[in-house]
Amino acid sequence: MLALVPLSGLPLPFLSKGGTALLSTLASLGIVLNVSKYQQKIIRS
């Protein structure tokens, strides 16, 4: 083994089939997009 890929059960973002992994990935992506959108409004003001 070259240890390039973790052998534990870490889910790949957007590729795993687990419902909890998908839900947490989409929730964190939504938070990041919301923060980015909010910061752009502040910069333009």
What does this structure look like?
It contains 1 helix and no strands. It starts with 18 loop residues before the first helix and ends with a helix. 58% of the residues lie in helices and 0% in strands. The chain is elongated. The protein is mostly helical.
List its traits:
1 helix; 45 residues; single chain; mainly alpha
Residue windows where pLDDT falls under 50 for at least 5 positions: none
Instruction: For the record, give the distance between the C-alpha atoms at the N and C termini, rounded to a whole number.
Output: 53 Å
Structure class: mainly alpha
Query: Number of DSSP strands?
Result: 0
Give the number of helices.
Answer: 1
In N-to-C order, the SSE pattern is H
Overall outline: elongated
* Helix residue percentage: 55-70%
Name the beta content range.
Answer: under 5%
Major β-sheet annotation: none
The oligomerization state is single chain
Mean pLDDT: 78
Overall radius of gyration = 16 Å
